Automatic annotation (TrEMBL):
It catalyses: (6R)-NADHX = (6S)-NADHX; (6S)-NADHX + ADP = AMP + phosphate + NADH + H(+); (6R)-NADPHX = (6S)-NADPHX; (6S)-NADPHX + ADP = AMP + phosphate + NADPH + H(+). Homotetramer. Its cofactor is Mg(2+); K(+). Binds 1 potassium ion per subunit. This is Bifunctional NAD(P)H-hydrate repair enzyme. NCBIfam families: yjeF_cterm, yjeF_nterm. Residues 9-213 form the YjeF N-terminal domain. Its EC number is 4.2.1.136, 5.1.99.6. Gene3D superfamilies: 3.40.1190.20, YjeF N-terminal domain. (6S)-NADPHX binds at residues 57-61, 125-131, 156, 258, 325, 376, 441. Bifunctional enzyme that catalyzes the epimerization of the S- and R-forms of NAD(P)HX and the dehydration of the S-form of NAD(P)HX at the expense of ADP, which is converted to AMP. This allows the repair of both epimers of NAD(P)HX, a damaged form of NAD(P)H that is a result of enzymatic or heat-dependent hydration. Catalyzes the epimerization of the S- and R-forms of NAD(P)HX, a damaged form of NAD(P)H that is a result of enzymatic or heat-dependent hydration. This is a prerequisite for the S-specific NAD(P)H-hydrate dehydratase to allow the repair of both epimers of NAD(P)HX. Keywords: ATP-binding, Isomerase, Lyase, Metal-binding, Multifunctional enzyme, NAD, NADP, Nucleotide-binding, Potassium. In the N-terminal section; belongs to the NnrE/AIBP family. Belongs to the NnrE/AIBP family.
Amino acid sequence: MKILSAQQIKAADAYTIANEPISSIDLMERAASACAQWISAHFSSSETVHIFCGKGNNGGDGLAIARLLWEQDYKVQVYIVEVSLHATDDFTANLEKLPIQPQYIHASHEVPSITTGIVVDAILGTGLNRPVEGWLAGVFHHINNLQQQIPILSIDVPSGMMIDSSSEKSTCIHARYTLSFEVYKLGFLLPENAERVGEIVLLPIGLHPEFLQRESTPYHIVDAAMVRALYQPRKSFAHKGTYGHALLIAGSYGKIGAAVLSAKACLRSGVGLLTTYLPSCGYNIMQTSVPEAMCITDPRNELSMQFYTLVQEKQQYNTIGIGPGLGTDVSTAKGLEKLLLQYKQAMVIDADALNIISQYPRLLDQIPANSILTPHPKEFERLFGATSNQFERLSLLREKAVQYKLYILLKGKFSAIACPDGVVYFNSTGNPGMATGGSGDVLTGILTGLLAQGYQSKVAVLLGAYIHGAAGDAAAEQLSQEAMVAGDIIDFLGEIFKKLPN
Ligand SMILES: NC(=O)C1=CN([C@@H]2O[C@H](COP(=O)(O)OP(=O)(O)OC[C@H]3O[C@@H](n4cnc5c(N)ncnc54)[C@H](OP(=O)(O)O)[C@@H]3O)[C@@H](O)[C@H]2O)[C@@H](O)CC1
Ligand SMILES: Nc1ncnc2c1ncn2[C@@H]1O[C@H](COP(=O)(O)OP(=O)(O)O)[C@@H](O)[C@H]1O
Ligand SMILES: [K+]
């Protein structure tokens, strides 16, 4: 699914009006009726609905929603916030059709004290053209202070929130739900806006499919349809050699669990053969807990320089996953440097392997093209530096993926996957139950398993991120977000793989 900028959304609107064709007031009616339907499905008509409208088309939506809910016997109060002297034509047309008398607000103290019902925020939408400040910011503060008692529903976008750049300097409505039209907006996907958007509900309003199909954008959402198209079923005459041999270099004293989780996830993602390279203290643990994995040990309790010679001697590994629980011992760093000089196929680099690279940045140039890096935000910052906001971080992510010809998956809710061509995919699966130690080690195992069995890096990272989150969602569904642990994500992988064939 494509993510469109405010400018592209405006163009989609215009294209739909010209080519469906439909009048702009009817398109607004369609958007408003999708919102009114959602509201009536979720809130009883005994609730008073307080609708705050600006004077642009977002306000026009609000007025139409007010009329539609009034027709369904809701008690409706409309407040027109005088954001501008100018009103749009569709706002004016809907004001003429409004069956009740609105109240006008020119100052923050004019916001009524509302103690029951629900609040609908239709003050500003994608037409925001400057940060919200001054008396309007005061109005927003008043509305936000109601939040504890009553739900705030923002129409299309929480008012005051920029969708294509940081809203740090703007006062925004903090919504409990954002009822947004047709497509995700980039700002919804970044953690800095989490408190502003609340729960996102996407409502289709019939924007022209031709426009959506042909419009190009660097930002996409990974969805179920996309991953089903990427998935390759196993061949009936396959043997274990068909699905590759992965080498997983992981673990240090006290962190063998990370290696175990990665190894199990790699095997449960369909790899043909798996060899793990571990410090000596991990041998019994791995052989007992994951008998399917072969095991080579380093004589030390940290991994030493020796693992590069192993790769040099045995070139049979289709890919290497390195990092979970590795530690950042100097000898491990030296081993990683030698490995990067020897091994030229795409690999998966995570956790302490990334931390080592951030200590020796020259190693970035040695990483094989098309490798997958999986930093969490802190690791990303160590690798590439701090940024002043998350839109800048996203630009930096794209820039580094292009510069080093890598797939860089920046972890979090809506993990952002930047590709060497500068395109970014946001993963749509996963939940806060996955914010538990070891979830990332499981992801490394999955990605290593998919790469080893022959998926191209791009397919492996999109498919892997999606199934990792989907298995996490299945685990949370069964066990709760609190009680699930990283190992449960592995246990639910099978359920997700079963749903992938078309
Ligand atoms: N997507 C679709 O296909 C469809 C979209 N639709 C809807 O249209 C919405 C976009 O409507 P829009 O373009 O009229 O802009 P909108 O957000 O109402 O704001 C414009 C007003 O805000 C003002 N203003 C701006 N910044 C300000 C600030 N900081 N502080 C104060 N004022 C500020 C600006 O004032 P001015 O700059 O003129 O002073 C102007 O008056 C979209 O979000 C969706 O709800 C549906 O109806 C149909 C299908
Ligand atoms: N709130 C969340 N929503 C969706 N996915 C999440 C959430 N929290 C964590 N995850 C996922 O869980 C994984 C956590 O990885 P990481 O922080 O490296 O964990 P660890 O180092 O403990 O293995 C990432 O893939 C991340 O996207
Ligand atoms: K709004």
